[in-house]
Design brief:
29% strand; alpha+beta; globular; 12 helices; 13 strands; Aminopeptidase; 38% helix; single chain
């Protein structure tokens, strides 16, 4: 067996992925998206045996003078981990440890394909910081009946007041402006505009992602008041970013966009609508729950190297940082947001 990094051999990787369960972060277009958006190296480590790929492991070497050095699979998305034959997981973990234990604090593997959970729990420290909501998709009528009654009324109202359409690449400036204002209101650092440009270039253009927008007619023009970004790959839609202009919340644009996206997923034979990770007790938890999805654990796994404990967010410090961020000038948040996200691996 050899451990090698896959560089530009997209067809070689594609042959492996056709035969194995995997998610979007195992693909070459996703690698291109992340590398261009974050100016980083997105590695696809592979175990090769008998002339073929047996198992792959995507990760980013995240280095920061403030937050430390970490190997994260997969940085900048809530999921990560292996695809392929389970018996090669141990050798790949040994390889990573040998390569990085002297220079890095910790290995973090975010929840991914469930078949590897029990194996990772044996080798690594498991933490359940987050959960996720996943909606099994059937016909539209069944999905509609399972949505909370008040939510159905809100959707019907919203669809009469906003138009939901694909956001074209030409509207990235408007989308990014809306996104940055929302992120400051959330108290969270924003991605750069290049992130969205790369998202369209490598994923949307290849049918692997979609961007819906909610528009309101104002003074003879269409105004973008909300946007919903999601991966569309394999058998699932996976929501990535949802933003909206609070001045138009009475029109319920988020409800209109989510239902339009769910309906599109049903019509295009997707099996799952993944709302993404969430913390219980948060406003997002309550919002997503009303769509009738199943709540599932989203474990993370850690191997400690130089670090003596699993990195965790202090709730009080996090609350303080959020409140401070909300008060920062918008141009400053745009300037420092991406470097912060890159260093944090989020």
């Amino acid at each position: 067996m050899q451990v090698v990094e896959l560089y530009g051999r997209e067809s070689y990787l594609g042959s492996f992925l056709e035969k194995n369960d995997h998610l979007i972060f195992h693909t070459f277009p996703y690698k291109q998206f992340i590398e261009e958006a974050f100016s980083c190296r997105y590695q696809l480590l592979s175990a090769v045996d008998n002339g073929g790929i047996k198992t792959i492991f995507p990760f980013v070497d995240v280095r920061s003078k403030i937050f430390g050095n970490r190997i994260i699979s997969s940085a900048y998305i809530e999921y990560g981990g292996f695809a392929g034959d389970e018996k090669y997981v141990g050798p790949l973990l040994d390889f990573l440890s040998e390569q990085y234990k002297r220079s890095h604090d910790v290995l973090e593997i975010r929840g991914g394909i469930a078949q590897f959970d029990s194996l990772l729990a044996k080798h690594l420290i498991q933490k359940n910081f987050y959960q996720r909501f996943v909606l099994p998709l059937a016909d539209e009528q069944t999905i509609w009946k399972n949505i909370q009654h008040a939510k159905r009324k809100a959707i019907n109202k919203a669809l009469k007041e906003v138009d939901v359409e694909d956001v074209p690449v030409a509207e990235i400036p408007q989308l990014y402006s809306l996104y940055c204002r929302n992120m400051r209101a959330f108290g969270s650092p924003p991605y750069s505009k290049r992130y969205f440009e790369s998202f369209y270039k490598h994923l949307v253009a290849k049918g692997m992602a979609k961007v819906y927008g909610a528009y309101i007619h104002k003074k003879g023009e269409q105004k973008l008041v909300a946007a919903l970004l999601g991966f569309c790959y394999g058998d699932r839609v996976h929501i990535l970013i949802a933003v909206s202009d609070p001045r138009y919340q009475q029109h319920r644009p988020n409800d209109a966009m989510h239902w339009t996206f769910i309906r599109w997923a049903c019509q295009n034979n997707y099996r799952w609508f993944d709302f993404g990770r969430v913390r219980e007790g948060s406003g997002q938890f309550e919002y997503k729950q009303k769509w009738g999805p199943t709540v599932m654990d989203l474990p993370s796994y850690f191997m400690l190297w130089k670090s003596k404990e699993v990195p965790m967010v202090d709730p009080e410090k996090h609350k303080l940082v959020v409140n401070l961020w909300k008060k920062m000038p918008l141009p400053v948040t745009k300037l420092v947001g991406m470097p912060l996200r890159k260093g944090l691996g989020i």
